[in-house]
Predict the 3D structure of the following.
Amino acid sequence: MQAREGKIYCCAVLDTYSRRVVGWSIDSSPTAALVTNALGMAIDSRIGKSTSLGTIIHSDHGVQFRFWAFTKRARDSGLMASMGSISDCYDNSMIESFWSRMQVELLDRQKWNTRIELANAMFDYLEIWHNRKRRHSQLVWLSPIEFERNRIITVA
């Protein structure tokens, strides 16, 4: 994403059940810290809400997702890493759709002078708009947080 001052990078972790952004990180460079911080936020936000043991995290083949720090953080948390096949858009379709919506609903609507302004706008989009207000057809037209609150848990 581009501000007049320069680029910033965003990494988001999307819960495929509720479409909720459960972890995210923004930085001026695409490093291992960017993706590890987003993963850490996702892990911390889900502690006590669901078990992470056996949970699969899926990423593309970006170098950031192959860094030792990222894979160690995932493994230490009981997560199983998954990477799709190269040049396959279908296994990343949900997150690609998310980035596309963010582009149209936020990034294409305005220009930002500084990285801080853009980072603040992205924070508002992720935490206020996407998670709390944006309705999703796959969630019976509820926001991700409403969907999670209204879910019916069945025990076998």
User: Anything to note?
Assistant: The CA atoms of residues 103 and 109 lie 9 Å apart. The chain has one domain: 2-150. The two ends are 45 Å apart (CA to CA). The beta strands are 2-3, 6-7, 9-14, 21-27, 56-59, 80-83.
